[in-house]
Amino acid sequence: MDTTINPLGDGVYEIDTRMAGYTGITAGYLILSDRPCLVEPGTAGSAPVVRQALSELGVGAADLATVVVTHIHLDHAGGVGDIAGMYPEAEVVVHEKGARHLASPERLMRSARMVYGDSLDTLFGELKPTEAARIRAVEDTGVIDLGGGRRLESYHSPGHAKHHVGLLDSQSGDLYVGDAAGVYIPETQDVRPATPPPDFDLDAALKSLRKFQELGPQRLLFAHFGPVSEVDGTLERSAEELRVWVDAVRDARDLGLDLDHAVAMVRDRTHERYAVTRKGADPELSAKYEVLSSAEANVAGIMHSLDQHA
Predict the structure, then answer these.
(1) May I ask the CATH architecture of the domain 5-230?
(2) What DSSP designation does 275 have?
(3) Cα–Cα distance list, 94 to 28, 107, 154, 164 (Å)
(4) How much helix, strand and coil, in percent to the nearest 5, is found in the chain?
(5) CA-based end-to-end distance of the chain
(6) Is 218 helix (H, G, I), strand (E, B) or coil?
(7) I need a labelling partner for 303 at 20 to 30 A (CA). Which of 11, 66, 140, 263 fits?
(8) Which of 220, 250, 221, 246 lies closest to 232 in space, CA to CA?
(9) Which Pfam families match (predicted)?
């Protein structure tokens, strides 16, 4: 099994978790500290890839101390149950609003199947339950001990999801942003929104981005995809893109457009903003990111939010 491991310094390793076989679309991170910690295990289908990568980095079944997820969406946390089974000593850390779904994922999986249908199995696989006694729920803030005085500090950062947290490494200054800062496309340096239903909330999302800036991180580590050193500019761009998309969807909604027509209008208004969707863009790259964060899902999430606030 091929693995792609990228050393980022300070004992941090990016692992391409290969969602649905795609490369460069979902990243997990191993912090190889005194108490090794895996951030974002990825999908259920990614679990064998992650185990192979950890093995190559010298982390055996009894060595992993902690698994942390920024939120419980299946591209980030679908593999938690599998990884918990492979690493029986690891504690699983998640925000309190997501903890019950890791212990009893049936409702989450039913909802996901309603959205994705038969493609769910190909994209994500099945989230297996994790023993409740192994799950530690954090609240607005929390601390994960990485050993040797090193800490991973969690900060509740809703907007993309109610159960989302950002994670700041006390030693490296890395901030694991999950989906709260959107999707970063390393091939083009684009930042695009991630606003799926049912939790998207613009005000909460912008507040979370301001919190991230106040934390003063040295680097942003995106689950989609990779490290970014231009912290302030990237977070400002993320906020700008959110406002652009919400304004576009609001205009479509005010015109009484249905979802399909709203998507078409938003695509027309925003495609020039991103190298990945401009005329002449690599069609494979465009298709890859449409699978990950489709315009339809983003528009649907914004429309749902506007309806909730109407």
Answers:
(1) 4-Layer Sandwich (3.60)
(2) T
(3) 15, 17, 9, 9
(4) 45, 20, 35
(5) 50
(6) coil
(7) 140
(8) 220
(9) Lactamase_B
Q: Count CB atoms within 10 A of the CB of residue 269.
A: 16
For residue 227, give Cα distances in angstroms to 3, 64, 108, 125, 184: 18, 23, 29, 26, 9
The encoded tokens of residue 176 equal 């694991």
Residue 156 and residue 92: Cα distance in Å, rounded? 16
Binned average pLDDT, 10 residues per bin, the chain of 310 residues = 89 95 93 98 95 97 97 94 97 96 90 82 89 96 97 97 97 97 93 92 97 98 96 97 96 93 93 85 82 87 89
Sorted by sequence, the CB contacts under 8 Å of residue 85 that are 6+ apart come out as 128
> 236: which 2 tokens?
């400002």
pLDDT of 33 reads 97
DSSP labels for 85-129?
HH-TT-EEEEEHHHHHHHHSTHHHHHHHHHHHTTHHHHHT-PPPP
Alpha carbon distance 266, 251 (integer Å) = 9
Helix axis angle, 295-309 to 259-270, nearest 10°: 110
Is the separation of the CB atoms in 75 and 43 below 8 Å? yes
Strand partners, 67: 38, 92
- Largest CA-CA distance found in the chain, in angstroms, rounded: 58
Q: Which two tokens stand for residue 110?
A: 């039913």
Q: Rounded distance, CA 249 to CA 266, Å?
A: 7
Domain boundaries along the sequence of the chain:
5-230
User: pLDDT digit string (tens) for 265-291?
Assistant: 999 999 889 888 888 778 888 888 887
Residue range 233-253, pLDDT digits in tens: 999 999 999 999 999 999 999
Secondary structure (DSSP) of 23-76? SSS-EEEEE-SSS-EEE----GGGHHHHHHHHHHTT--TTT--EEE-S---HHH
SS3 165: strand
